[in-house]
Amino acid sequence: MHGIHHITAIAGAPRQNRAFYVDTLGLRMVKKTVNFDDPGTYHFYYGDEAGSPGTILTFFPWEHAASGNNGLGLADMTMLRVPAASLSFWAHRFARMGVAHEPPVLRFGESLLAFRDGDGMSLALVGVAGAQNDPGWAGGGVAAEHAIRGVHGIGLWRAAEATSAVLTDVLGFKQDAREGDYVRYRAEAGIGGVVVMRAAGTTAGGRMGRGSVHHVAFRARDDAEQAAMAKKLVAGYGLHPTGQKDRQYFRSIYFHEPGGVLFEIATEQPGFAVDEPLAALGTTLKLPPFLEPRRHELERILAPLANGAGR
User: Fold this and answer.
1) What pLDDT score does 202 carry?
2) What is the rounded distance in angstroms from the CA atom of residue 120 to the CA atom of residue 266?
3) How many other CB atoms sit within 10 Å of the CB of residue 55?
4) Rounded Cα–Cα distance for residues 234 and 240 (Å)
């Protein structure tokens, strides 16, 4: 099934990031690990109860990272899916918890509530008809009926026509609607199935940093489908993905799409329960086998996430 697998962004303080996404947004921390390419820093994964593809937001919390600035070459708004009737609940919750937000707007027939996290990341809750029928995680303190149901989609700047071709020919999306400066693409996945591109106009180039989306990952069922997608990128678009990288919970290839955004294609397997039981996801620091010999060193480096509670 095609669609978004996960979205990865850059954060600042690890404790602040965890508090916002778990305590404020009510997501489950499904994996607490390290950045495999920079193991002295955390890599957090948030999602639904099982960490299903399409529900996952991940963060590299680099505490001293400079603030980023959205623009060309970077993804724009990250949209999260909630039941249509729950937007008023979230507006009241944000007011009570001091989360600034914009007035709701209607886009493609759906209400959108835009806000930012503590690092300035551009986010929105989108009220989706039928989302109430998807399972809701209640372990984060938000009642299941109002819980976030995963990623709705990602916003991109319409900076290169070839980006549209990659979305439709390689990644399994179809253009299905246009509204003013916005064009919507859909994949068959209900959760994580939307990409919205908007005209770039005179928008300046973006600067990666705290609050920026680092990359957008799209789904491949397995290694064979991923390899077929990579072959299309090379043959049809002259784009050359990296070799496959084992990310423990999925296997990935990476490339920059024609507009400059870093895209990933991630397999759906093996999933987040490969190294800890479902009931215990995200409760302890998990390391891949090649980093396990460095556990004591890394635990000394990584900042504690709670008073007296270790990592």
Assistant:
1) 66
2) 26
3) 29
4) 5
The answer to whether the CB of 118 falls within 8 A of the CB of 61 is no
pLDDT given at position 158: 86
Share of the chain above pLDDT 70, in %: 98
Determine the Cα–Cα distance for residues 148 and 136; give it in Å rounded to an integer.
7
Query: How much is the pTM?
Result: 0.95
DSSP-assigned states of every residue in 166-210: HHHHTS--EEEEEETTEEEEE-S-STT-EEEEEE-TTPPBPB-SB
Distance (Å, whole) CA 217 – CA 193: 12
**Interatomic CA distance for residues 154 and 183, integer angstroms:** 12
Q: pLDDT band for position 159 (50/70/90)?
A: confident
**Cα dihedral sign, 281-16-118-12:** negative
Q: Tell me the pLDDT tens digit for each residue of 203-260.
A: 788 899 999 999 999 999 999 999 999 999 999 999 999 999 999 999 999 999 999 9
HSE, CB side, 13 Å, CA atoms: give it for residue 277. Answer: 2
DSSP letter assigned to residue 300: H
Domain limits, the chain: 4-301
Classify the C-alpha dihedral 235-236-242-244 as positive or negative: negative
What's the average model confidence in pLDDT over 36-42?
95
d(CA 153, CA 130): 16
| Segments in the chain forming alpha helices (H) | 14-18, 87-97, 161-169, 223-237, 295-301
Nearest CA-CA partner of 69 in 216, 205, 195: 205
4-301 CATH:
3.10.180.10
